[in-house]
Known about the structure:
By secondary structure, the protein is α/β, with parallel strands linked by helices. Helix content is 44%, strand content 19%. A 5-stranded parallel beta sheet has the order 2-1-3-4-5, with helices on both faces.
Amino acid sequence: MNDRKHILIIDDEPLALEVMSEILKHEGYEVVVAANGEEALDLFRKSPCDLVITDMVMPVKDGLQTILDLRAEAPELPVIAVSGGGNISKDRYLAVAGCMNRVLTIGKPFTVSTLTGAVRQMLEDAPLDQP
């Protein structure tokens, strides 16, 4: 039986996908990657995951819309929203961070320990709506 957690990483930058994927595989996670929100939604429907890490600024479908679409499929899906920050408005970050539970935001660039710590936190946290 495979108890490894499955993580879906979404980013339109190939280097970012490769780096995050390798770090998390090294930590023992199963990782699948998508270059945009549409591809991610297709992958998620075929094989749901335990956690999503998504860039917020992407072509085709941005991170916020991707999160909303994934949450329509799995309302309690934990999400780590990643962005350089300079290209995304504060209002959109607030919509992600303040209006939806089980979302953690981290900025680029980040350290390996920031990424792995955020992943552990999101996978270990109990759903926020439990008593």
